[in-house]
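Notes from the 1:1 (GR / supervisor)

We went over the backlog. Supervisor wanted to see one worked example end to end before approving the batch request, so GR pasted a single chain during the call. The sequence is below; no edits were made to it. Supervisor asked that the structure be written out right there so they could see what the output format looks like.
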Amino acid sequence: MTKFAGKDTFHLRVKVHLFHVLRINKMLSCAGADRLQTGMRGAFGKTQGVCARVAIGHVLLFVHCKDGNSHHAQEALRRAKLKFHGRQKIIVISKWGFTKFNRTDYVRWKSENKILPDSMNAKLLGCHGDIYTSYPNLVLMTGDCVLFLSGLMKTPLVVSGTNTCLSDKWPVEVHWI
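Structure output shown during the call:
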């Protein structure tokens, strides 16, 4: 991946950790070894290595890169899966970075200021909290009147509607107070 795509063009994240310790109880199998070993008495053993317990369907690795380097990432993962026991699948997903949102939804919500960046992830803002800071352009419908709150114009407007939250891009009938 570094050779073909470059060292700064991808982000690799390992999702499993090697917490399970493997131990071995060494036994001698030559003649006269019965005086050197004690069988199963105190058979806790010495550490031999570590491994990870993984269930079927568990994600082992994430590689995030741009679309131009996608084929390099797939080839790198194909070569890497030969080093692991068992059967692995390479799945290409269309999420935005490390978030749980699809690319099209993320771009649309970002333009509507409905997504708040949060470290490597992002939060989808709901219809609760401080309206002026959360949604600069929002139509808040309560009962039979609607307040249109804009980040530039803080003048409330009245509209007929139902209990819901709509974007300001929806066609609604607006009346000045």
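Supervisor's comment: The longest strand covers residues 46-51.
Batch request approved.
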